């Protein structure tokens, strides 16, 4: 089996993540709720842990339904945070949700060696082993969510970049879509890579260009380059795939900062 056969499914899945997560990341940055993705991902992981305690399976359909339920419940709670005027208080609530969900997951699996290994998989992912069938399912779901994003682009844009007043229904729809995206990603990619794909490409693009469309396009391009570099590094050096991709995406941060500085001097 060639390197292309091994890495191509993982790269396609990473590409789907980069496209959807960069769009979400730009909205998250505009709202100043940086850690909401991490909290939603951990809520989904906690749901999968609950399914594991029932039947010992963290990757079947029951686990996915439980993960979606956990993410949707957290998303509903986060949709109410717009009513909190203090942005610091919002971040405290989101951060607390993350650490509590993590602690509950650790406590639930602490007496099981198999469970702790499963928890490590939820954090680090197993994107190298994603199947084409899973990719097709995720691609179809992302396409439906993309259609929603296009249809409601004015409402979502107003929520993130305007005052967003009196639109709690659309706020709830935004976080519900957010929860679905995270649930579809976290099972294969892991919590860490999901968070990196959401924040890093969007932030790097925001350093370099202005305008939502330009940032979205550049963020996707940067995310694809980082994903390809991380996968190549993992294959060449026999390193963990998820951590390698996160490290490669992380390298985009100083490079983007240097590019911004150089452009300012030009």
Give an overview in words.
- With 266 residues, this protein is an all-alpha fold.
- The protein is built from eleven helices and no strands.
- The protein has one domain (3-258): ABC transporter involved in vitamin B12 uptake, BtuC (Orthogonal Bundle), CATH 1.10.3470.
- Helix 6 (132-151) packs antiparallel against helix 8 (168-189).
- The N and C termini lie far apart (48 Å).
- Residue windows where pLDDT falls under 50 for at least 5 positions: none
Strand content: under 5%
Find the CATH topology. Answer: ABC transporter involved in vitamin B12 uptake, BtuC
Backbone shape: globular
Helix-strand makeup class: mainly alpha
How many structural domains can be distinguished in the coordinates? Answer: 1
Query: What about the largest sheet?
Result: none
How many helices? The count is: 11
SSE sequence, one letter per element: HHHHHHHHHHH
CATH class: Mainly Alpha
CATH architecture: Orthogonal Bundle
> Roughly what percent helix?
over 70%
- The pLDDT mean sits at 87
Rg is 18 Å
Q: How many DSSP E strands?
A: 0
Write out the CATH superfamily name: ABC transporter involved in vitamin B12 uptake, BtuC
- Note the gap between the termini: 48 Å
Quick structural gist:
By secondary structure, this protein is mainly α. Helix content is 84%, strand content 0%. It has one domain (3-258): Orthogonal Bundle (ABC transporter involved in vitamin B12 uptake, BtuC).
Chain-wise SSE layout:
Elements: H1 3-31, H2 36-55, H3 61-79, H4 87-109, H5 113-124, H6 132-151, H7 153-161, H8 168-189, H9 191-208, H10 212-237, H11 241-265
């Amino acid at each position: 089996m060639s390197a292309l056969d091994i890495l191509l499914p993982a790269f396609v899945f990473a590409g789907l993540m980069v496209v959807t997560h960069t769009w979400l990341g730009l909205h998250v940055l505009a709202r100043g709720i940086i850690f909401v993705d991490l909290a939603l991902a951990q809520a989904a992981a906690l749901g999968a842990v609950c399914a594991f305690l029932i039947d010992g399976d963290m990757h079947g359909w029951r686990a996915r339904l439980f993960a979606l339920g956990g993410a949707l419940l957290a998303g509903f709670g986060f949709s109410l945070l717009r009513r909190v005027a203090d942005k610091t208080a919002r971040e405290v609530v989101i951060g607390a949700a993350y650490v509590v969900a993590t602690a509950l997951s650790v406590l639930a699996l602490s007496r099981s060696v198999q469970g702790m290994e499963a928890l490590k998989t939820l954090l680090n992912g197993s994107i190298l082993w994603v199947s084409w069938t899973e990719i097709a399912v995720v691609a179809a779901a992302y396409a439906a969510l993309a259609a929603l994003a296009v249809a409601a682009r004015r409402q979502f844009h107003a929520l993130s970049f305007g005052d967003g007043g009196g639109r709690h229904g659309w706020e709830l729809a935004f976080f519900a879509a957010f929860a679905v995206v995270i649930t579809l990603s976290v099972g294969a990619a892991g919590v860490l890579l999901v968070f990196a794909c959401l924040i890093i490409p969007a932030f790097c693009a925001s350093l370099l260009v202005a305008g939502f469309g330009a940032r979205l396009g550049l963020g996707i391009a940067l995310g694809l380059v980082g994903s390809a570099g991380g996968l190549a590094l993992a294959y060449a050096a026999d390193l963990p795939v998820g951590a390698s991709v996160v490290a490669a995406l992380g390298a985009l941060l100083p490079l983007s900062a240097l590019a911004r500085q150089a452009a300012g001097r030009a």
